[in-house]
């Protein structure tokens, strides 16, 4: 059962899980979430049709009805769940993973995520214990449900004047192809804009630099003001500036402040994850933001934003969450709002690279992965080494550790799914950054055999 993770069910199909797992997830879900109807959508992966067939059979065998919205982005499922009052939904997707992967993202009432700690763990336990799946006397029905127009109308409310912008857009052969041209029209130069679950051009993960190269080349070729790239299920989006330089997604949390805090006057809490640059909060504070730092991942971020009634939030991985979108994330909505800001800035003579240079104050290592078995011991050793030798100005001990010092900070956290420690560091100078990264590498390699 290696497919059950902190945020979702995901793995290589027919290796980590199979159609029988999909059936059992479907069967147990109505009981878990105390409902007799489940909303279901799916992405375009080759294996999604079979998973869909068995998931639906499980749900209906349990006596619940399926409201099937067909091919969809993951945020479209969130919209359907919250907007129509469903208590349970499933999106069949493996998000940004390669084509051989698949999975299921489960939500409860109000599109709140169901993770390992609040439901998926229970389903995993029922499956592993061999709990029987006895078909109910009254078998549920499958009802096709078309929510596409409602969702598109919702998104189009946020469309402003982009007529002065030259846009390059990579749809990654994924689910953004469902809506992009109806939202953005013919003005952008599109690449990989046909839906193809084999992802023939690049893996649908914009965080891997090689997957962004085609977009960067297009930006330079056409002289675009901005490059936009989505992941496979369109819940994440990332950007390049007009020079083709990839923009660290956490910095876009700061850019969104121009829409929510400055233009709309929605002062209040802005959520960031524990890996976010200090520059984000420093840029947003004068606009009226109260920054709140929390754990990585939708299973934590969406719940926390709702709990705090935050205005919006974002993550280093390119997720952006919005109070106006049921506290959920949407790559398409995020890109629309970013384009609104970039278009406004261009009218003032400010390029995207200039805007980012006004935010980005520090040198950043990016996330570095260390393969290591004793993750807790290694994390403790790194924390103790620096806290014993330097005076910390801030300390956070959720999702690993984030320790801040006057001129630098680091976060070290365990991967939920692999034997990796993920380390990120930011400093006031390149020299200091290199020094601290080398120090950490020495501890992890010499004492814990990291590689």
From TrEMBL:
Record flagged with keyword Metal-binding: yes
GO molecular function, one term: magnesium ion binding
Keyword annotations: Isomerase, Magnesium, Metal-binding, Phosphoprotein
All residue ranges annotated as the Alpha-D-phosphohexomutase C-terminal domain in the record: 367-442
GO biological process: carbohydrate metabolic process
Alpha-D-phosphohexomutase alpha/beta/alpha domain residues: 3-117, 153-244, 249-362
InterPro entries: A-D-PHexomutase_a/b/a-I, A-D-PHexomutase_a/b/a-I/II/III, A-D-PHexomutase_a/b/a-II, A-D-PHexomutase_a/b/a-III, A-D-PHexomutase_C, A-D-PHexomutase_C_sf, A-D-PHexomutase_CS, Alpha-D-phosphohexomutase_SF
UniProt cofactor(s): Mg(2+)
Similarity field: Belongs to the phosphohexose mutase family.
Protein name per Swiss-Prot or TrEMBL: Phosphomannomutase/phosphoglucomutase
């Amino acid at each position: 059962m290696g497919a059950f993770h902190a945020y979702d069910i995901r793995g290589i199909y027919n290796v980590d899980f199979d159609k029988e797992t999909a059936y059992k997830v479907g069967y147990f879900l109505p009981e878990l979430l105390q409902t007799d109807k489940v909303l279901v959508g799916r992405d375009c992966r080759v294996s999604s049709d079979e998973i869909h067939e068995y998931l639906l059979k499980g749900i209906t065998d349990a006596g619940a009805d399926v409201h099937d919205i067909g091919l969809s982005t993951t945020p479209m499922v969130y919209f359907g769940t919250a907007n129509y009052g469903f208590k349970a939904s499933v999106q069949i997707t493996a998000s940004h993973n390669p084509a051989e992967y698949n999975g299921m993202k489960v939500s409860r009432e109000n599109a709140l995520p169901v993770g390992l700690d609040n439901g998926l763990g229970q389903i995993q336990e029922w499956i592993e214990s061999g709990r029987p799946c006895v078909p109910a006397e009254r078998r549920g029905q499958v009802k096709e449900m078309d929510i596409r127009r409602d969702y598109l109308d919702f998104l189009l409310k946020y469309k402003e004047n982009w007529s002065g912008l030259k846009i390059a857009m990579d749809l990654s052969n994924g689910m953004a192809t469902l809506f992009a041209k109806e939202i953005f029209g013919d003005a952008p130069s599109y690449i990989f804009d046909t839906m193809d679950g084999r992802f023939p051009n690049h893996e649908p993960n914009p965080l891997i630099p090689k997957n962004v190269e085609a977009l960067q080349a297009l930006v330079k070729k056409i002289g675009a003001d901005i490059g936009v790239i989505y992941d496979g299920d369109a819940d994440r989006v990332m950007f390049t500036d007009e020079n083709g330089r990839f923009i660290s997604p956490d910095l876009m949390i700061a850019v969104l402040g121009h829409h929510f805090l400055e233009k709309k006057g929605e002062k209040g809490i802005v959520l960031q994850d524990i890996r976010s640059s200090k520059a984000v909060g420093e840029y947003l504070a004068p606009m009226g933001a109260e920054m709140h730092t929390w754990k990585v991942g939708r299973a934590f971020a969406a719940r926390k934003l709702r709990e705090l009634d935050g205005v919006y939030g974002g993550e280093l991985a390119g997720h952006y969450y919005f109070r106006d979108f049921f506290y959920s994330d949407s790559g398409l909505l995020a890109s629309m709002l970013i384009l609104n800001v970039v278009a406004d800035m261009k009218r003032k003579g400010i390029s995207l690279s200039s805007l980012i240079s006004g935010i980005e104050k520090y040198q950043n290592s990016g996330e570095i992965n260390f393969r290591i078995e004793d993750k807790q011991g290694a994390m403790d050793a790194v924390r103790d080494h620096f806290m014993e030798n330097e005076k910390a100005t801030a300390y956070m001990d959720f999702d690993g550790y984030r320790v801040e010092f006057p001129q630098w900070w680091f976060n070290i956290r365990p991967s939920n799914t692999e034997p990796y420690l993920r380390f990120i560091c930011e400093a006031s100078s390149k020299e200091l950054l290199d020094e601290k990264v080398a120090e950490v590498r020495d501890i992890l390699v010499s004492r814990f055999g990291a590689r």
